[in-house]
Design a protein that fits this description.
The structure holds two protein chains of two kinds.
Chain A: E1 4-7, E2 10-13, E3 18-25, E4 31-37, E5 44-50, E6 53-57, E7 64-70, E8 73-79, E9 87-94, E10 107-108, E11 112-116
Parallel strand pairs in A: 2-11
Antiparallel strand pairs in A: 1-3, 3-8, 4-5, 4-9, 5-6, 7-8, 9-10, 9-11
Chain B: E1 3-5, E2 10-14, E3 19-21, E4 24-26, E5 32-38, E6 44-50, E7 56-58, E8 64-68, E9 73-78, E10 87-96, E11 101-105, E12 109-114
Parallel strand pairs in B: 2-12
Antiparallel strand pairs in B: 1-4, 3-9, 5-6, 5-10, 7-8, 8-9, 10-11, 10-12
Classes of the chains: A mainly beta, B mainly beta.
Chain lengths: 117, 115
């Protein structure tokens, strides 16, 4: 299995709702990532988990809460979002280990298209 | 700090003609460079990477890229473009950390291949 899956594909939520995005990979990768992408723009890194521990938080507002329950699964919990949070949310994974070994590429899921009303 | 620049917002070519998408980089230390492609309403797909070794890197779908250290460039090329190559292309550079890789992306180049 060489893919990253994300659910749901689309999500519409109000500013008072609580929802979660889910990401799963079964490639044995030990690093997992959340990105936010606006239309025609590059992805912006939000969070990195390495060996199930939060490694990077790019000063993301607390209304976004990541969780890594196990090495295959990554969640992003959403609460009290703003309309400007509407975007494509991408999950990615990478093998981990020394980059010089040539294992550094990230594999991306198809994304969740989030609309905040 | 590392960064990449994609000087062209858009590239338009006719099908069958060569395609080049430009990327220049700025890093302290050895650059780890990547190209990704994104089709409409899809995630990013990995095309190729340069870590070390041969300056000409071959990747997926007939794409290749040439690493040029003196010009700090990593241009993506395809000898004969297809209409299906129309997409958004991102160059990226990685800062190697112990167990994960923080990618810095260029602004992206929209490629349109006309029939």
């Amino acid at each position: 299995d060489t893919e990253v899956t994300q659910t749901p594909k689309h999500l519409v939520m109000g500013m008072t709702n609580k929802k979660s995005l889910k990401c799963e990979q079964h490639m044995g990768h030990r690093a997992m990532y959340w990105y936010k992408q606006k239309a025609k723009k590059p992805p912006e890194l939000m969070f990195v988990y390495s060996y199930e521990k939060l490694s990077i938080n790019e000063s993301v507002p607390s209304r976004f809460s990541p969780e890594c329950p196990n090495s295959s699964l990554l969640n992003l919990h959403l609460h009290a979002l703003q309309p400007e949070d509407s975007a494509l949310y991408l999950c990615a994974s990478s093998r981990g280990g020394a980059l010089a070994e040539g294992l550094g590429e990230q594999f991306f899921g198809p994304g969740t298209r989030l609309t905040v009303l | 700090a590392q960064s990449v620049a994609q000087p062209e917002d858009q590239v338009n070519v006719a099908e069958g003609n060569p395609l080049t998408v430009k990327c220049t980089y700025s890093v302290s230390g050895n650059p780890y460079l990547f190209w990704y492609v994104q089709y409409p309403n899809r995630g990013l797909q990995f095309l190729l990477k340069y870590i070390t070794g041969d300056n000409l890197v071959k990747g997926s779908y007939g794409f290749e890229a040439e690493f040029n250290k003196s010009q700090t460039s990593f241009h993506l090329k395809k000898p004969s473009a297809l209409v299906s190559d129309s997409a958004l292309y991102f160059c990226a550079v990685s800062l190697a950390r112990s167990n994960d890789y923080k990618l810095s992306f260029g602004a992206g180049t929209t490629v349109t291949v006309r029939a």
